[in-house]
Amino acid sequence: MKSGDRIRVATATEELEGRLMPSTRSGYLVLKLDSGYNIGIDESKIKNKELVKAAEPAASKETSVEQKKGLKKIAILHTGGTIASKIDYSTGGVIAQFSAEDMLNLFPELTDIANITSRQIASMQSEMMRFAHHNLIAREVAKEVENGVDGVIVTHGTDTLHYSSAALAFILEGLSVPVLLVGSQRSSDRGSTDAADNLLSAAYFIAESDFAGVGICMHENSDDANNLILPATKSRKMHTSRRDAFRPINTTAIARVNYAEKNISFISEYEKRNKKTITLKLIKEDIKVGIVKVHPNISADQFAFFSGYDGLVLEGTGLGHIPNQKVDDASAENAKIQKAVEKLVADGTVVADSSQCIYGRVHMNVYTPLRELQDIGVVGHLSDMTPETTFIKLAWLLSNYSKDEAKKLLTENLRGEITERTEKETFLV
Ligand code: GLU
């Protein structure tokens, strides 16, 4: 028996079935169970071991996609992530591996929905992405739009998908067609993968709706019934593993897609397809923006560290607070924090406030300590952007506008990132 074979193993207490993985510990056999988890079994306890199915060599033939009359044109740009991954039986891990052709072979139904062209523009887990990759994706999307496609799907790892969607929304000014980011929480070679539904729903939505702009297409629930089209600048990965990990924050989804029933229902207002032309407003690849998450007992040097940065996002507590007041002998450090932030702003770093509550709005007028932050030039009052969108927006603003303009525009709604009113039904949806 070799790595990748499906085998059944019996011990005195249990019977387990799964894929044989390479073992890193002698005397132990490692099985990848259908749940995706690996289990190590002490070989001396094994009573019986049988082969269920030998591993098949991975096939990767090219698909030549014939163009069908009357169908819309969709370009799929692959960047990597779990959606493009399969289990590597030599290491037991999940690696980015599927090529653009493999992906079309895996989901041939896509070619019934639209005329698909599929290209690989990157191959990475999304936590590896930098501003250069956001710019790369934006440039490739713009090329496709200029070539006349009716929409673009960008496949992407889920970890930072919401940073990329926000970046694309800001960078691609004047987008006339839909651009949907699609990921999956289970790799595409698993029976339980959510990749198929996410991709098919995205393609169906592009082919059948009049939506224009950047969005995210992921599961609404943990079953396969509905997908949501989520707003690019107001969504977030809220769970490490659930298929419905992506939720709208401080707003609702844009639309619900039921691919099986061929049904699209819009939930919110949206921009329609139009005749605009794209202006690329890229993020400077050497721009330096940081995020500092406030916590009890934080020290002033954690703020001073960002000296010389172009921008800093404060992930404050509650309404956007940082510990910036000395209230007794034990809190002298807090006064130093106020001084450190004051120095950052005075030296030219644009400091933007956000809240680690995630939901709700920054409000810098309610309590004196936050008024004091405003007084020294910290911006963010009334923003309901997530810290992640604040981070991307600040980097993008500082790449394309003067510091004064960036401070002003941070709290103006440019791409749907700031809502006018906080609606109570948008909490935990
Ligand atoms: N960490 C990886 C990524 O974001 C895998 C997660 C995923 O794609 O779901 O690319």
What would your notes on this structure say?
This protein has 429 residues and is α/β, with parallel strands linked by helices. The protein has three domains: 6-53, Roll (SH3 type barrels), CATH 2.30.30; 73-280, Rossmann fold (3-Layer(aba) Sandwich); 289-409, Rossmann fold (3-Layer(aba) Sandwich), CATH 3.40.50. The chain is 23% helix and 25% strand. The protein has an eight-stranded mixed sheet with strand order 9-6-10-12-13-14-17-18, sandwiched between helices. A hairpin with an 8-residue loop joins strand 15 and strand 16. The protein is globular, with a radius of gyration of 24 Å. Glutamic acid binds next to loops.
Radius of gyration: 24 Å
The separation of the N and C termini measures 48 Å
- Helix residue percentage: 10-25%
- Give the number of helices: 10
Indicate the CATH topology of the largest domain: Rossmann fold
Largest sheet: 8 strands, mixed
What's the average pLDDT? 91
Strand order of the largest sheet: 9-6-10-12-13-14-17-18
Compute the number of structural domains.
Answer: 3
Which small molecules are bound? glutamic acid
Q: What is the global morphology? A: globular
Return the CATH architecture of the largest domain.
Answer: 3-Layer(aba) Sandwich
Structural class: alpha/beta
State the CATH class of the largest domain.
Alpha Beta
**CATH superfamily placement of the largest domain:** L-asparaginase, N-terminal domain
Report the sheet-strand fraction.
15-25%
Unreliable residue stretches: 58-64
Number of DSSP strand runs: 22
